[in-house]
Amino acid sequence: MVAELSTLRDQIDEVDKQMVALLARRLALVEEVGHVKSQHGLPIYAPDREAAMLASRRQEAADQGVPPDLIEDILRRTMRESYASENDSGFKCLKPELRPIVVVGGHGQLGRLFCRLFELSGYQVRILGSQDWDKADELLKDAGMVVVTVPIHLTEQVIRRLPQLPDDCVLADLTSIKSGPVQTMLEVHQGPVVGLHPMFGPDISSLAKQVVVYCDGRNPESYQWLLEQIQIWGASLNRISAIEHDQGMTLIQALRHFTSFVYGVHLAEEDPRLDQLLSLSSPIYRLELAMVGRLFAQDGQLYADIIMSSPQNLAMIKRFHQRFGDAIAILENKDKAAFKQAFDQVEGWFGDYAGRFLKESQSLLRQANDATHRG
Q1: Where does the record place the Chorismate mutase domain (predicted)?
Q2: Domain containing 227 — which CATH number?
Q3: How far apart are CA 248 and CA 256, in angstroms?
């Protein structure tokens, strides 16, 4: 038996080596694709091409008795690496005549990411950091674009501190709230203004499949090149008004981060053994616990700024608190009928999205389980 297993395992090892060689060849081809895309200004992420390719490979896998989900998992992971490697090819510069881009707060994590993207696209980039304000006039006098990326609570203050910019200079911000910053930019600058909110953190390897929300301010024709440049980087754009943006962020960011914060505080006060919780966890609870723990591995000041950035955030959290109390009353009364009625009402509100989210979460949970090591 030992000899038989050893022979089979040797064959598996040989196949694995062939897979590694094929992946290396694929990445080399992707690098060549990146150079072509860079020359012609094509986005690194082409959703139609990706969808068609995955459909073809799934069919080919099924024809050979290979589970289609298996080949899709392998290809999606491979493509993620491919998108990251395409960054190294650089990007076509859509506005080569643009004067220098000044990133205010460019030494921060998000600022460094955008400085790198602009530089990979061939733009001249300058940084105005917190220690550089004595040189602000010199740095900004011939700016073609100014991007403000500083902590939320300082954003409007920093915008007001800017000296007069050239009339055709594009003024933008990267803040996760929009109404206040966009209005402030419109007040201090008479030229083109746009509010941007990258819906991702600075630790991403590629903008492929990421979302950048933008809010028009003034003279959108003057910054259309910027939006197209962001798309070349691989991101999808979502246009929305500043007011609608902030209303959405109340749920997407403020309430979500606050509930994670409270759950983390509750866990710390209850003080269970984390290793024991993990050993007992199903993949879904492990993933939920990881998402809460992830919050506390980051900057507490940032999350305080996000949660406390608007009175409407507090109002939403209070409404959530009230509904939490209503749910507790159902439990206290052991009213299963009321629970089922509320459950059915929410299920109806989700509609077809409930099934869709179930399928998406199953895929995520399989990946989470794959990454788990027990023993």
Answers
A1: 1-90
A2: 3.40.50.720
A3: 12
User: Confidence band (pLDDT; 50, 70, 90) for 222?
Assistant: very high
pLDDT score recorded for residue 373: 61
* CA 118 – CA 313 distance, rounded (Å): 33
Band of the pLDDT at 293, cuts 50, 70, 90?
very high
Which of 194, 222, 240 is the endpoint of a domain? 240
Q: Residue for token digits 């707060």?
A: 105
**What is the percentage of the chain residues whose pLDDT exceeds 90?**
77
User: For the whole model, what pTM was predicted?
Assistant: 0.85
Out of 179-193, 200-214, 221-235, pick the least confident: 200-214
Both tokens of 63, joined, read 């024809």
Q: Is the pLDDT of residue 368 over 80?
A: no
Return d(Cα 58, Cα 244) in angstroms, integer: 39
What are the contacts of 320-325 at 24+ separation with CB within 8 A?
A: 320/255, 320/259
Q: For residue 327, what are its two tokens?
A: 């749910």
Tell me what pLDDT residue 374 has.
58
Two tokens, residue 350: 């989700």
SS3 101: strand
Q: Which of 324, 345, 172 is nearest to 263 (CA)?
A: 324
Q: What is the pLDDT of residues 101-135, one digit of tens each?
A: 999 999 999 999 999 999 999 999 999 999 999 99
Which of 207, 240, 273 terminates a domain? The answer is: 240
User: Is 296 buried (19+), middle (13-18) or exposed (0-12) by CB count in 10 A?
Assistant: middle
Is residue 296 in some structural domain?
A: yes
The number of distinct structural domains making up the chain is 3
Q: In what order do the strands lie in the sheet with 211-218?
A: 125-128, 101-104, 145-148, 170-173, 193-198, 211-218, 236-239
Question: Which domain, by its residues, includes 138?
Answer: 101-240
Is residue 363 assigned to a domain? no
**How large is the angle between the packed helices 352-370 and 336-350, nearest 10 degrees?**
90
Q: Let me know if residue 344 belongs to a domain.
A: no
44 pLDDT higher than 90: no
Q: Mark whether 310 and 234 lie in a shared domain.
A: no
Same domain, 202 and 306: no
